[in-house]
Structures are given as C-alpha cells and as structure tokens.
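Forwarding these from the shared drive since the link keeps breaking.
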Amino acid sequence: MDPETAHLAHRGGAVLVDIRPAAQRAAHGTIPGALVVERNVLEWRFDPRSGARLPVADRYDLPVVVFCQEGYTSSLAAAALQDLGLHLATDIAGGFAAWRIAGLPAFGPTDIYAHLTVAPAATAAGVNT
C-alpha cells in the first residue's frame, strides 16, 4: 500500500503499526497515532487467540497497516499476520522513509543524545574557570 493510501486507511479506522526498534524511531521520527509494537512481539500481540494480545486485536477482520523504516521488514510482518488469519493486514511500500518523502504527518526525529551532559568547551579544553 502506498503511503497516501495508508494515511487514508488510518484516518478511516485502520490500525497503523510501527514495528521499528526504539533507536530507529528516535533517529528518524514517528507517525502520529501509530501504535508501537516492535517486530519481535507482533504476532502474539495481534493474534486474537493470544492471551497476550492487545485490546484492539480482537478480531481477524481488523485492518492493520504495518510499517518499518524502508518497507522490507514490514512486508514480511504483514505476511506473518496474514498467516495468522488477519486477512486485511498489509504494509506501507517504502516504509516510514516513503511516508516522510510523501510529506505526510510525522514527528521527530528526536535527539537521542539530548539526555547526555556535555562538558562546557572551556572545561573540555582543560581551561580552569
């Protein structure tokens, strides 16, 4: 599914799922309203039969649009959800990168190093103050 169609699907009620690791989300940004479910737990969070499923994953006809950074991992993830019976699962062709290029709503990126304390230039240079 192209990014524009995914955006319309999300606005129409499809669940948009970001499967990227936290570091990728911080480095590249996020999509407002996307549900974050990292790839390693996707199947058991979306299988309606799973005791560990998310509350939203209560039926097999749930429209789910998965995305990763460039669209490769999400294609496999969508196929895995389809194998579970979620026949409306699909992914964004080109991933988050294509979403950004399309100019669709996004937040970030976040400065993942903002929490680190940086020494003032004078101290770092060995100058006593």
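-- next protein --
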Amino acid sequence: MSQKHRTHEASDTNGPHDAHHDHAAEEGPHSTFSGYMIGFVLSVVLTAIPFWLVMNHVITDRTVAVLVLGGLAVAQILVHMVYFLHMNGKVEGGWTMLSTIFTLVFVAIAVAGTLWVMFHMNANMMPGHAGHVGHATHGGL
C-alpha cells in the first residue's frame, strides 16, 4: 500500500466526526471572570447613579433630568452589549454589529414616524378643540 492510501485509510477510521471542528479552539467572544466583574460593577454604578439622582431630587429641571437619565440608560445598554453580549466589530465578521445598527435605525425611524403621525393627527383632527364652546342651546329646554 502506498503512503497516500494509508493516510486516507487512517482518516476514514474517525467516521463522520471528521467533518466537525473542535469548538473550543475557535476564536470567539469568550470573556474572563474579570471581564464579567467589570461589566457587573459598571452596571451597578450606572443603575445606582440615576436612582440616587431621582430619589434625592438632585435635578430639578425635567428636560435636563430626561436627558441625563436617557444618556445613562444608553451607557447601560452599551455596557451590556460589550461586556455581556460580547458584541464588537470582530465577531462573525462584523455582521452582528451591522444587524444591531440596522435594528436601531429601523426602531428610530418607526418611533419617530409614529410620534410624527400621532402629533399631526392630533393637531389636524382637533383644530377647534381649545375654543370649543359646546352645545349650549338645546331648543330652549
């Protein structure tokens, strides 16, 4: 038997398992204990700060409060995406991040469109609402 034929025979002994790869050797979004702890501590801090701001009435202006709390909420989302979901531009060739960006753009368009339609529907359907007098005369009864 030739060397080439023996090599081919040796690979046939493993059967259908030859097609499988060792998943432990794959490059993937694996994290360490310290990575999870950093994410956990950041999550706790990004939860405690808004709670403290609201409970102690630190921010009195409603608009500023909404912007600050919204910014901290976005930071919380990013911490979860990076430290717990392991999302970055390298995983799966960037397709995970691209699909997330597409989803965010789609949701932003849907929410903005819904608010726009509802605002204009309210303004156009109820034009005389502020000056509405009502039905004061019912035929003299």
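The first helix runs from residue 3 to 12. Residues 57 and 80 are 27 Å apart (CA to CA).

- D.
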